[in-house]
Amino acid sequence: MAGNDLVHVVDDDVDVRKSLGFLLGTANFAVRLHDSATAFLDTMTGKIEGCIVTDVRMPGIDGIEFLRQLRARGQTIPTIVMTGHADVALAVQAMKEGAADFIEKPFDDRILIDAIRSALDGGKHAGATHPQSAEIGSRLSTLSERERQVLNGLVSGLPNKTIAYELGISPRTVEIHRANVMSKMMAGSLSHLVRMALIMESKS
């Protein structure tokens, strides 16, 4: 099996490691399990092949610091960060630190497998998944002022209730605006929406 079929699962929860190992094995990935970011980094030699799936919250070196240390060591391996619903702000931070994607738990198995395959592709299909800035800008121009405010809150990692409080509207109204933003931006997931926003941020 080629090196780019390799998936490193880095998670302190033994049950999560085992279940992900089984899932990815049945999807024909080569899998290596690591019980912590520290253990992974300690055994790292040379350029790492494949991709990493890790949790944003871990004892010792958490997902954010893990990304920073990988980058500090010159590693460009794509990394997918798993996050709980309450950790979206951390997930957004992880993407700013170079994560390829983040996935909110609980997630459908297919979503993770598709994210891994996309990461292993190494951006070969980036044009379809990450529109160019002109196209993203065109989509942004269709948003109302309130939708832009909700988008800014989402990209900052704020939960709906906090966005609602800051804008003086109800959480239900935020949900409606959020759905409109996702539709107008043609975002298949929150991580896709964040990626597009970060592309525009890097251009400004």
UniProtKB/TrEMBL annotation:
Positions of the Response regulatory domain: 6-120
InterPro entries: CheY-like_superfamily, Sig_transdc_resp-reg_C-effctor, Sig_transdc_resp-reg_receiver, Tscrpt_reg_LuxR_C, WH-like_DNA-bd_sf
Residues bearing the modification 4-aspartylphosphate: 55
Annotated keywords: DNA-binding, Phosphoprotein, Transcription, Transcription regulation
HTH luxR-type domain mapped to chain residues: 136-201
Gene3D superfamilies for the chain: 3.40.50.2300, Winged helix-like DNA-binding domain superfamily/Winged helix DNA-binding domain
Cited NCBIfam families: PRK09390.1
Protein name: Response regulator FixJ
